[in-house]
Fold this protein.
Amino acid sequence: MSVLKINGKSYTIDADENMPLLWAIRDIAGLTGTKFGCGVAQCGACVVHLDGEAVRSCVTKVSRAQGKQITTIEGLSKNNDHPVQQAWQDIDVPQCGYCHSGQIMSAAVLLRENPNPTDEDIDTAMAGNICRCGTYPRIRKAIHNAAEIQRNSTKS
Amino acid sequence: MKNPFKINKNIKLKKIAVPVTVLLLTGSLTAFSYNTELTTSTYVKSPDFLEKKKDSVASVKAFEKVYSVLMSPRCMNCHPIGDIPLQGEDSHIHTMQPKRGKDGKGLYAMKCANCHQPENTPGLHAPPGNPNWHLPPADMKMVFEGKTANQLAKQLIDPNQNGHKDMKKLIEHADDGLVLAGWKPAEGLKLPPISHKEFKKAWITWLETGAYAPKQ
């Protein structure tokens, strides 16, 4: 039996500690915003925050997540108004949308650590998140916009 | 900082006689000077390490084995020339091109431990793992890729290039967790060319017999 703290709420998980965190999040906690893509940490669809870091939950075991703060796309902000989420909506970034919870979770870490990212910084941070629809130009534009939203909210 | 290692080139084996001239003790052993020549190798002397039996031939021979391991993908892939690690048996650039970062642990959403778990993830093409997975830091890159045996031997015992390791720490490094991880490859990846036991023996032999660098 494991206890996982997801989005500020404790979940008692009756599962093998070797179970991928993604399974626990989706199938046991019922938070299906995080997606399964490749299962081998290659695509980034399953990115969640583990103590603030953008881990790939498909290869992260439940045992590694115990005692840590897990944040999924559902918990990134209270009203879906994280600067990255706002920018994503403003620009209408997704096409099919499958990869975008992972994209947003990765972008959120970038903006936390680098409030004024260059195109190169964005490429560096987002290179592990694949989008089969090819929305990369909009992702880049949205991250620049999110940075601006974040800067403006800090000023006010 | 002055490099504490003294390098004497072209010492002839036949004439190896005496470490001669100056032995300065100023709280610690500071320098040796040799007036002999060695044709097969370059001698790199550590000021804080007294060899039990200096032997350039045995030292260079031992380093051949050491070099074969350090240049194998399990070691070299995380000691690249650039700031992106290498992958696979052909040491290609790591897919996704994760960057080294200041501390060697990656950048932003692309930190090593975001994918590389404390242990190997099962399955072909799944990330290998170790609790301390990282590249050398940006200010001490410790590049193996592209280095000749001569260059790498000199680099390994230069504290300004080896992570400030003295001889004691170098010997201990044979049992470092990340070094040992080379012999626990993920599925589908090959082991280094010799066992860790053989590697450790060669590593210590190389250091204890004088840490000579091969000529090439």
Q: What stands out?
A: Chain B has one domain: 6-214. Strands of chain B lie at 6-8, 11-12, 37-38, 41-45, 86-87, 92-93, 106-107, 110-111, 213-214. Chain B is about 25% helix and 10% strand. The first strand of chain B starts at residue 6 and ends at 8.
